[in-house]
UniProtKB/TrEMBL annotation:
Organism: Phyllachora maydis
Name of this protein: Dienelactone hydrolase
Region feature Disordered, mapped onto this chain: 440-530
Ranges that cross the membrane: none
Biased composition, class Basic and acidic residues, residue ranges: 474-488, 505-522
Gene3D superfamilies in the cross-refs: 3.10.450.50
Superkingdom of origin organism: Eukaryota
Gene Ontology biological-process entries: polyketide metabolic process
Length: 530
């Protein structure tokens, strides 16, 4: 039977798409999902857990590191490098690709030390990853690395963690597929760029100002900060390689709902890690309150937190940044201090004062649960608003050195962030506490008469004119003299404030509840709640 394929194809296509479609058909075959692509199977297709091979020189390895990867849902296997030499180790690496695997299944390698060096060198060659089964290679402090100007095969997601110092670089020429001789060149690893230590390599790499072994908790060289940074980067690489997406926001939202609104202790504690190797901890940094470990944290929440927040407590999410294992929330917080709040105002009886602050919460998650949370806010602003700190009461020694006002702001700082800045307000930064800034702005804008008045003020008090004034006492001959100081937009929220912004009536009701207009304004002003 003769089949007219072009005619058959044209019959299946719209009239404007007819013609020579052989090339298009071939192209679609190349771009469609195949058996090596994770998108080839539906999400509902049963799959084995992603497989990770962790390898290092010794016969045993840090059990806490192995457990951490298992908590994230990986099937972990440890492969010791052994003492039979690099050739035998390389042979065992090749055997990893010959293991029987399911459709679309790949594996990853996390290597440490000399094992990391051999893995990087081995898989830098395309032919050593047949069928592209290796999808992820993470190397910790290798002693030698491939040429940083080269790239790894695109099928492998690579990440290299290096420590500062010298490292051997493998240089190898290649012409028309023929590998040339290898040569080693010493190179120095610096601190990288910025604060993150990113390296300008052909493959992703970071430098750390620590010693080799910083990521293994059973070694003396372990460094918690560098290890956690490297962990987040490694987890992101592994999840990307295996196509894993974890919605870390869910656990954070359940935690927030439980402790602030439902005020349910057991539900709150259920959102935290509970294993021995991953004890939860919460720290409110300005007051050093919180808990470390399940028992202490539960006691803290029960006695000093969940039932200590007044009914007026209200939180508005301004922005949220979500990472692979981090959720950072920027929030506007309002409350009326009608009861003792030991976690934010320890030892302070109720003052019945209204407080508005910006609070930042940084949550780290392990295995889908909260591992630790650090919470920050401006404690000076809180103290100003409840009447425990007056920015105008400067210590005598500081006054002698020319300090006329403490650089502390009341609720104005929180409202500035809440209301946002419009594009048309360029050049209208506050900077009210920088007296030189005020002088420069006034010299550009005031007319000659105002300038002469300012000179007179400078001779008497040495400070620039502003919309409002406060009194400051000075020692010596000038004791008790009134000195005009900038007060615009520096509302301290106390009864002594001279600014009209000291009142709360514009934004909150009699009992501290937010008005409908206030909430609507926060949206209009462009606050980001994404």
């Amino acid at each position: 039977m003769n089949v007219n394929l072009p005619k058959l194809v044209n019959a299946a296509l719209a009239e404007d798409q007819r013609g020579n479609k052989n090339v298009a058909i071939v192209s679609d075959n190349w771009t469609a999902p195949n058996h090596r692509d994770a998108g080839f199977l539906s999400r509902d297709f049963p799959k084995d857990p992603p497989r990770l091979i962790i390898t290092a020189e010794s016969d045993d390895f840090d059990q806490l590191t192995l457990a951490a990867w298992q908590d994230e849902g990986f099937l972990v296997e440890y492969l010791p490098m052994g003492d039979s030499g690099p050739d035998d180790y390389t042979h065992r690496l090749r055997e990893l690709s010959t293991r029987k695997m399911g459709p679309c299944q790949t594996f990853g390698i996390i290597a440490f030390g000399d094992a990391a060096s051999l893995c990087l060198e081995h898989y830098h060659v395309l032919d050593n990853n047949p069928d592209f089964k290796l999808g992820c290679l993470i190397a910790y402090y290798p002693t030698r690395i491939p040429d940083p100007d080269t790239k790894f095969p695109s099928a492998i997601n690579v990440l290299v963690h290096l420590v500062e110092g010298e490292v051997d670089v493998v240089k190898q020429t290649q012409m028309i597929g023929i590998q040339g001789k290898k040569r080693l060149v010493k190179t120095s690893i610096g601190r990288g760029i910025g604060t993150g230590g990113s390296l300008h390599f052909g493959y992703p790499g970071y430098a750390y100002e620590v010693e080799e072994g910083f990521a293994e908790r059973d070694l003396d060289e372990y460094d918690r900060i560098s290890a956690e940074l490297a962990w987040s980067r490694s987890l992101a690489t592994a999840r990307r390689a295996f196509g894993i997406h974890v919605d870390v926001e869910v656990a954070v939202e359940v935690n927030t709902q439980s402790k602030f609104f439902a005020r349910n202790l057991q539900q709150t504690m259920s959102t935290y890690t509970s294993t021995v190797h991953c004890a939860p901890r919460v720290g409110h940094v300005p007051t050093l309150t919180g808990g470390i470990g399940t028992e202490e944290l539960q006691d803290f929440y029960d006695r000093y937190f969940i039932h200590s927040n007044p009914d007026s407590w209200d939180v508005t999410l301004l922005s949220r940044t979500v990472g692979v294992d981090r959720v950072v929330d920027e929030m506007h917080v309002f409350f009326r201090h009608t009861q003792e709040m030991p976690w934010i105002l320890p030892g302070v009886p109720p003052t019945d004062k209204k407080v508005e602050i910006i609070m930042v919460s940084i949550v780290a998650l392990r295995g889908g649960r909260l591992h630790h949370e650090h919470v920050y806010w401006d404690q000076a602003s809180v103290l100003v608003q409840v009447g425990l700190l007056d920015p105008r009461l400067v210590p005598a020694k500081a006054r002698e050195n020319g300090v006329l006002r403490l650089p502390a702001i009341g609720r104005t700082s929180a409202r500035r962030v809440l209301n946002g800045i419009e594009d048309g307000q360029e050049g209208e930064a506050d900077n009210g506490l920088i007296y030189e800034w005020e002088d420069a702005q006034e010299s550009e804008e005031e007319d000659e008469e105002d300038t002469e008045d300012e000179d007179d003020q400078s001779e008497e008090g040495g400070e620039s004119q502003a919309d409002n004034t406060v009194k400051a006492s000075t020692d010596g001959d000038k004791k008790g003299k009134e000195v005009e100081k900038p007060q615009t937009e520096l509302d301290d929220g106390t009864n002594n404030s001279l600014s009209s912004e000291a009142t709360d009536d514009n934004t909150h009701g009699e009992n501290g509840e937010k008005s409908h207009d206030w909430r609507r304004a926060s949206v209009v002003e462009g606050t980001d709640s994404s």
